[in-house]
Amino acid sequence: MRLLKACYEALDKRYHITPVLEKNLTKKWVPRTLGWAACFGGLAFLVFLIQVFTGVLLLIYYKPDPGRAWDSVTFIKSNVPMGWLIQRVHSVGANLMIALAIMHMARIAYYKIYRAPRELHWVSGVILLGLTTFLAFTGYLLPWTNLSYWGASVGTEIPGAVPVVGEQIVTWARRGPTISGETLGFFFAMHVWVLPATIVVFLGMHFAMIRRTGISKPL
Amino acid sequence: MSIETSQSPDARRLDEGRRRFCQAAIGGMAVVATGAVAYPVVSFLRLPKSQRQQEAMEIALSDLPDGSALWGDHMGRQIVVINVDGNIRAFDGSCPHLGCIVQWEVASRSFLCPCHGAIFNDQGQPTGGPVNAPLRPVEFVVTDGVLRIA
After folding, report:
1. Could you tell me if A101 and A186 are in contact, meaning their C-beta atoms sit under 8 angstroms apart?
2. Quick one: pLDDT band at residue B50, thresholds 50, 70, 90?
3. What is chain B's Cα-based Rg?
4. Binning pLDDT at 50, 70 and 90, where does residue B52 land?
5. pLDDT value at position B6?
6. In principle, which of A27, A160, A195, A214 could form an S-S bond with A22, CB 3.0–4.6 Å?
7. Which residue of B has its CA nearest to A84?
8. Mean pLDDT in residue range B125-149
């Protein structure tokens, strides 16, 4: 403890960390009328961090190959110590993240917080909800179960309703006419890198804008 | 923004005591929470059961036609099982010279070490190269056409 304190003091002396912490964390007062409902956005972000962490753990054993995907998930759930827990946290977390994002948006909509000057907060938030949905959808295929196969089949069928280019979008998203090993590889790449990285970019914008305008103060 | 504290010494002592209790309670909860997260994560990073405790190695003899060889992993050793004219033999596959894993040459029915060219016959006896020790034989039992190394 004393060593940690000495380390902190040495760093603080050189880089003046305490004022930064006080301004942003320990002495940053929020409006007293703000209730627990204002936490949903932050909680959704917390769940996102949990998803990244458990996702990296699952990546150690997961194999994005149609012949081995299901076996590898079963291996995680039954052979890896605490694997059942990590896998379950990741799958429940996906649902929780979407639920919290929607609860966050419901509050913003109800109190009309999206109005000027916060219109772009809302726009970036809607994009984040879309990205989160795609993240959950691509992750759903990865265990390569019957349920996930048909989930992906039905889901990729939806853009088929778009006039003219619909069929092309479906074929593009499936990497072929039907769900196959190619689809699995594509969804895997989207799920573990492309979508999370895009979410991080939009989260950065979302948070930066909130810091510039400040949070909306309820009456 | 500051919280007004009462000025009497007794009240201040009481305040101090409460503050220490709260600090200890928060610290304790933080330790418990950290442990609750760290335990599953550290467990997850340990080697899974099947890679930690080796079970007996089993090979179906129907997978091992005459002249062929099969490799398997047993207790951290690479085991090679060969079938020569119906005679089944199992060896520790690491070369007694410097520990490389030997190859089975189907045409000459001999083992060849890829590192320094040691050669062993189908009995595991050295016939050439820088070795004078044989491949270590491995004991096995065959029941109902399944070879088993315990």
Report:
1. no
2. low
3. 32
4. low
5. 56
6. A27
7. B44
8. 88
What CATH number does domain B54-149 carry, 3.40.50.2000, 2.50.20.20, 3.40.1170.60, 2.102.10.10? 2.102.10.10
d(CA B74, CA B136): 14
Q: Note whether B115 and B83 are within 8 A (CB).
A: no
Instruction: Tell me what the pLDDT averaged over chain B comes to.
Output: 86
Is pLDDT at A188 greater than 90 in this prediction? yes
Contact A61, A72 (CB under 8 A): yes
Q: Which pLDDT score, from 0 to 100, does residue B2 have?
A: 53
Which helix (H) or strand (E) element contains residue B26? helix B9-45
Q: Cβ–Cβ of B48/A29 closer than 8 Å?
A: no
pLDDT at position A62 over 60:
yes
**Is A85's Cβ below 8 Å from some Cβ in B?**
yes
Three-state secondary-structure class, residue A35:
coil
Burial class (CB in 10 A: 0-12, 13-18, 19+), A100: buried
B75 pLDDT higher than 80: no
* CA pair distance B72, A104, nearest whole angstrom: 55
* Residue from B2, B34, B44, B47 whose CB has the most chain A CBs within 10 Å, to mutate: B44
* Tokens standing for residue B89: 């033999």
For residue B9, the tally of other CB atoms under 10 A from its CB is: 8
| Encoded tokens for B73 | 């992993």
The CATH number that applies at residue A93 is 1.20.810.10
DSSP character for A113?
T
* Tokens 């853009």 sit on residue: A159
Residue A29 lies in a domain: no
**Predicted ipTM beyond 0.95:** no
